[in-house]
Amino acid sequence: MLVADLLESLDDDVDTKTALKLTGIKSRTTLIAERQRRGTLIRHSKLGRSCMYSRASCLAYKRAHRLLVGYC
User: Fold this and answer.
1) Is the distance from CB of 16 to CB of 31 less than 8 angstroms?
2) Which one, of 33, 19, 2, lies nearest residue 62 by Cα?
3) Is 1 among the domain residues?
4) Given this model, what pLDDT does residue 11 score?
5) Distance in angstroms (rounded) separating the CA atoms of residues 8 and 4
6) Residues 53 and 44 sit within 8 Å (Cβ to Cβ)
7) Is residue 1 scored above 70 in pLDDT?
8) Whole-angstrom Cα distance, residue 2 to residue 11?
9) Around Cβ 63, how many Cβ atoms within 10 Å?
10) What domain range includes position 43?
């Protein structure tokens, strides 16, 4: 049951504040620019003025943009 709950939580949508934490992006404007960039990994949906981000896509973005320590 725990694994199913974890997999289900990956499909959740998160708000901007949580998306910033998950992606490691520091600035709200950088997050907006990244979500508008062609070919980005960050999936989002808008309802009125609020914007929700896919938790799984935020985690995928962070994995794709992490630095490999020792490989300079």
Assistant:
1) yes
2) 19
3) no
4) 73
5) 6
6) yes
7) no
8) 15
9) 9
10) 13-64
**Does the pLDDT of residue 7 top 80, yes or no?**
no
Q: Is residue 8 part of a domain?
A: no
Q: Is position 37 within any domain?
A: yes
Number of domains comprising the chain: 1
In a domain, 69, yes or no: no
Instruction: Using DSSP, state whether 27 is helix, strand or coil.
Output: coil
Least confident range of 26-30, 57-61, 63-67, 68-72? 68-72
Q: In the numeric block, which tokens belong to residue 58?
A: 């935020």
Q: What is the pLDDT of residues 38-65, one digit of tens each?
A: 999 999 999 899 999 999 999 999 999 8
- Establish how many alpha carbons lie within 13 A of residue 21's alpha carbon, considering only the half-sphere containing its beta carbon: 5
Q: Residues near 60 by Cβ (< 8 Å), separated by ≥ 6?
A: 41
